[in-house]
Structure formats: structure tokens, C-alpha cells
Amino acid sequence: MKLFEPIDIGTLHLKNRLVMPPMNSRMGDPGGVVSQRTVDYYARRAQGGVGFIIVEIGAVDPVQIVSPTQLQLSDDRFIPGMARLAQAIKDNGARSAIQIHHPGRQAPASVTGTPAVAPSALSSRRSGETPKELSPSEIEGLVGLFAQAARRAKDAGFEAVEIHGAHGYLLCQFLSPYSNHRDDDYGGDAARRARFPLQVIEAVRNEVGRDFPIIFRFSASEFTQGGLTIEDGRAIARLVEEAGVDCLSISAGTDASLEWAVQPVLLPVGCLLPLAEAVRQEAYVPVIAVGRINHPSIAEAALQEGKADLIALGRPLLADPDYPRKAQEGRWDEIRKCIACNSCRRDPWPRELPICCLLNPETGNEGVEETPASKSRVVLVVGAGPAGLEAARVAALRGHRVTLWEEAARPGGRWSWLQRGYIGERMKELKSMGVTVELGKEASPQAATALGPDAILVTPRAKPSRPDIPGCDGDRCLPATELLDQKQKVSGRVVVLGTGNTGCEVTHLLSRQGVSVTMLGEQAAGHGVEPATGKVLVQQFEEQGVKVLSDVQVTAIDTGAVKFQDKDGSPGTVGADWVVLALEDQPMEEVPPELASLGLEVHTLPFCGQPRQALRAGREGAEVARKI
Fold first, then answer.
1. Reduced 3-state DSSP string for 582-606
2. What ranges in 209-284 are assigned the alpha helix state H?
3. Is residue 407 a contact partner of residue 397, using CB atoms and an 8 Å limit?
4. Are 248 and 309 in contact (CB under 8 A)?
5. Per-block average pLDDT, block size 10, for the chain (628 residues)?
6. Is 470 within the bounds of a domain?
7. DSSP string of 509-521, one letter each residue
8. pLDDT at 300
9. Contact 69/38 with Cβ under 8 angstroms?
10. Pair 26, 12 in one domain
11. Residue 217 and residue 173 in contact, taking contact as beta carbons nearer than 8 Å
């Protein structure tokens, strides 16, 4: 496989072409010092067989940061911790670099206590704050900060440095006409907008020397009006290559289009490969591709087809650190595939909790093992949602004999159309652990008594919400489950009541079938859904002609029409041949009385009604399993 052929980046020899790109883990100690947790996290990825690890953003400025735990390269006192990190990566078989970074206008004053700085005084789409415009002398000072941070990276034992020029951070802000409105030597045409980044590259090269590789990461397209296009990206590649960089890392997006920087499940796998391919046609140095490359077949094809020279695995290495080793050994089916749920991002922003993964609870907790139970017991878990699946996994890890029952014919039921991959991956893992799984199995008192469990862990049942609206019990008014379970078909004009996860799911289904859909709800479309996913959903709805009416309250359902009033109390009507009730499910009783009456040890698992609750529900389910 070409994936496992060696390659050189400048003077740096890599054993294979798989790269862990920088992702802010938020696991540094306060003040930006490398923590043991950070060391363990990177060492675990190195153990999995990846050839090259580019450590997360290292701040060049002590104040301008994105979180209190962001790693620092702004002073020599941070070198010892960085040296420990670089050595741990090397000791576990990978080569290492670190990314040097300045957030520009994305540095929130709530974290820094001071105004952000930027090429132009344009507010950030993420923080909503307006930065201070940098003066030419201040820009020159920042050039020196980048150079000194690179020197510290080299002194710490890193074998290369990556300059962050992507995702709407400071260097990207200068490169992009979207965020750079200057009319001096640092703004205007493409060459002047690139002046500051090129000065940074020159200063870094002068500081680290010719034999120390420099990587430049940039957004080859920002996918936003007035932002960088792929043609701009090709031009940037030529400029920075001429300035002496040894490798190009191709990403996308800015602070107004972060769905392209951390792509949600609704964007296709390998969605940024065309950008890498376009840049590679211009480049003489190696090109790194990224973007939902969650399976070796996608990665190998990209190399074989000449779209890139190296493949970056970001979130896939959170889901499975052993992805490289399993791929090399041909154990592709054993790879725990990233499902792009973006639980790792921990929204809302700013996110100060440590990095995590819905699929892999070990992420962020490397080296922490489950404590074996003092006595192996028979444990029955009822319900194959996020809490039940995680409770079953942890109970099995602790040495219990676990049986999982799910009343529906498939695990997880309809829990989340956006994250069903999670259900499948967890079921695969439970099977490998010896957990007995029975689908279509009702937890009746007779069945539970026959099994004879020592403890029962019960997930509350969900019941669809039926609003108290005149006319909602009519023949043409259906619960969403009737459509989602393919028990009923509709045509003509369909009105979906509910703009949350269930409303989006049924609207997504119907719009792809060519049905005319109008969504009505009191909140914006996609509320309760991970923000990047929600944004893409709304964009797709617009493209498919879905009409969305938010901030409205439905007052009545009549034959052929739905009546509502907006937030100002003004009435409105929309035509409807069918009305779909798609409000979010509610939990029923915590423990069914028939199970509670058995006199057995019974524990309640948390109810998970929305995709964004999955991570928390799983963790709470694990805690219940640890009490047994």
C-alpha cells in the first residue's frame, strides 16, 4: 500500500504517509504548560502507528489565545514541558512537529481579558467581538514572535514546525479578502495580503535554519462569499513554496464557515480532496490532504490517484488511535470509524473542556482503566440507546456477565439519524466483548425473572409528544414515527411541526423524496443539533426548496391548512395536505412498575432525547455501571 511507503518532508524522513494534524486538545495545565495528560494523549496516538504527529496550536503570544489551557510557545520556560512531549512521541515510534499559532480576531476577550487584534477591525463571526486593527509596527513585532516560537519548538526537540495559516486565524485573516480590508502594504491585492505570512515564513526560516522543515497550513478555499477561492489557494501555494516551505497542508473554511474546517456528517467523506489535488498540481513540495478520510480505502485511493502525498487523520485518530496499525495489517473492518458527529468539539464556543470522542471514551483519558468489580455479577441492560450501550460496555469491562435487551427490531431505534454510525460501532464492540444482545426483546417480568439478573439497568422509554392543538388528531395528522419507520407515505403539501432533531430528520427524508415541505416551530431549524451539522442542514433545506417558519406558534390544524401566529401575534396560514407531528420525544416512567415490583436491584439510566446529549448520556450511563 502506498499509505505505508516512506516519504521525506525536507530533511525529515517519515516511515509512512499518515499524519495526525493539530487539534486543540484543551488538556494543557493552566497557563499553557504541557500536562501529563497531554503527553499520554499524544503518546497513545504514536503507539497506534501514525508516522507523523503535528502537535496542536502553540501560542506565539502569551495573551492572544483561544482558551486558558492552550499550549504556549511564547517563552523559554515552556521548553522543558514541550521537550517531554516531543520525546514521548519519538519514544513511541512517530516523528513530531508542532503548530505555531495566533488567533487574531478569534481570541475571545472573555478568555484573554484584552481586545483581540486583526488586520482589520471586523467582528468575529464566532465571538461577535470587534478586534483592534494592527499597526505596521505591531505586525513587525508579531513576525518576531512567530520566529521565536519556532526556535523554541526546535530547541524542545520537535523535528519540524507548522505555521497555522488556515481557519480564519491571524495569518488567514491577512491572506483573505473576506477579513483583510487594509489599504496599506499589508492589504489590497493578493501579493500585499500575503506579505505578513511571507515575512513570518522568512523569519522562521532564518531562525531555525535550512535543514529544519517548515509546513504551512492554509485554507485553500473559505467557502464563504468574499473569501478565498481555490484559485486563491493555488496562488498562495505558489507564494509560500517560493518563500521556502517544505510541505503544504491543505484545509478549508474560516470563522464564518467552520463547517468546512471540521466537517459534519452531512458533508461527504473525502470532501476536501479536490482542494488538495488542485494545490498539488501547482506544488513541488509534498501536500497533506485532510477532511473526513475515515477509512483506509479513501486514503489509499487519494494517494494512488495523485490527489495528495500524505493523508491527515484528525478525528479518525480520536475514534481509533490504532487506525494506522489496523490498516497496515489489513484489519480494516476492526477500525472504529469516525462518524463526524463533532462531539469532540464540545460546543458551544469557547470550549474549555478537554477533547473527547463519542465513539472512544479513552480519548482524553489515556492510561485510565476501568476498575474490576469485586465480584462478577449477571447484569441486564434494558435499552440500546447511548446510555444503555455505554453502560453495557463498562459493565463488561469490569468483569460482569452482561445481557442487553432492546425492544425494537434494531439497536438504538430511531435515536439519532445523524449518529447511527455510533450505534453500529458500539454494537460491534459489545459483540467482541462477549455481551449478549437480543433485539426485539421486551423486558417483561417473566423474561427478566427467567434470566435471573443480579442487577437491572433500565433506560426510560420514549414517547412521542402530541401537542395540545385543535385538529391535531385528524386523519391527515401523523406522528413522525409513521414516516420514519416507513409505515406511511405522504405526498402533496406537507407541514412538519417541529424544528428540532426529529423535525429535521423527517424534513430531510421528505425533501429528498421531492415532497413539498414547510417546517414550523418556535425555535430556529436545527436547534438541538450540533451547530455545524445544523448549518449544513439548513443550507440543504434551502437548496431543496424547504420553507422554514421559525418563531411561530401553531394555533389550529384545519382541513387543508395549518394556522399559526408569529412572535408579534400576527396570524398566518400555510396550506397542508398532511401534517407531521415532529416534536421531540419525552421520557416515560424511569423504571417500569412491572420491573420495580420484582424486588431486584434496579438502576435508572439517563434519557437521551437529542444528538447533542449523547456524550453526556453515555458518560452518565458509564457511571451507573461503575456502581454495580
1. CCCCEECCCCCHHHHCCCCEEEECC
2. 230-242, 273-280
3. no
4. no
5. 97 98 94 96 98 98 95 98 98 98 95 95 88 98 98 98 98 98 96 98 98 98 97 97 98 95 95 98 96 96 98 97 97 94 70 86 92 96 93 97 92 75 90 95 92 93 79 88 88 94 92 94 89 92 94 92 92 95 76 79 86 86 95
6. no
7. HHHHTT-EEEEE-
8. 98
9. no
10. yes
11. no
> Residue 119 and residue 196: Cα distance in Å, rounded?
10
Residue 594 contacts residue 382 (beta carbons within 8 Å): no
Distances (CA, A) of 290 to 5, 262, 285, 312, 358: 18, 10, 16, 5, 21
Domain extent at residue 90: 2-280+287-304+311-345
Task: Say whether both 300 and 184 belong to one domain.
Answer: yes
Can you tell me the distance from the alpha carbon of 482 to that of 406, in angstroms, rounded to the nearest whole number? 20
Identity of residue 131: P
Say if residues 93 and 53 touch (Cβ distance below 8 Å).
Answer: no
Cell triple for 106: 478569534
Full 3-state SS string of 442-506: CCCHHHHHHHCCCEEEECCCEECCCCCCCCCCCCCEEEHHHHHCCCCCCCCEEEEECCCHHHHHH
Annotated catalytic residues are 169
Grid cell at residue 502: 426529529
CATH of the domain at 188: 3.20.20.70
Instruction: Tell me which residue has cell 496542536.
Output: 56
- What sign does the dihedral 439-445-447-451 (CA atoms) show? positive
Pairing of strands 571-575, 378-382: unpaired
Closest among 459, 444, 456 to 602, alpha carbons compared = 456
Q: Which helix (H) or strand (E) holds 88?
A: helix 79-91
Q: Same domain, yes or no, for 551 and 402? A: no
Cell of 468: 395540545
For residue 249, count CB atoms less than 10 angstroms from its CB and return exposed for 0-12, middle for 13-18, buried for 19 or more: buried
According to DSSP, the residues that pair with 564 across neighbouring strands are 554, 572
Q: Directed axis angle between helix 614-625 and helix 386-397, to 10°?
A: 40
Q: What angle do CA 47, 49, 50 make, to 5 degrees?
A: 110
495 lies in the same domain as 458: no
Check residue 352 and give its pLDDT. 67
Number of domains in the chain: 3
Query: Which of 233, 245, 236, 235 lies closest to 274, judged by CA?
Result: 233
C-alpha 215 chain-centroid distance: 24
Residue 334 contacts residue 307 (beta carbons within 8 Å): no
| Statement to judge: residues 502 and 559 lie in one domain | yes
| Residue 250, SS3 per DSSP | strand
Assigned domain for 610 exists: yes
- Do 248 and 216 form a contact (C-beta atoms < 8 A)? yes
CA nearest 65: which of 124, 18, 19, 112?
112
Residue 19 lies in a domain: yes
**What's the confidence (pLDDT) of residue 215?**
98
Q: State the amino acid at position 109 in one-letter form.
A: A
Which of 463, 492, 484, 459 lies closest to 625 in space, CA to CA? Answer: 459
Residue 322's φ and ψ, nearest 5 degrees, are -90, 10
CA-to-CA distance for 470 and 84, rounded, in angstroms? 67
Residue 513 CB contacts under 8 Å (≥ 6 apart), including other chains: none
Indicate if 482 and 382 belong to the same structural domain. no
* CB distance 352 to 68 below 8 Å: yes
Q: How many contiguous H segments (helices) and E segments (strands) does the chain have?
A: 20, 28
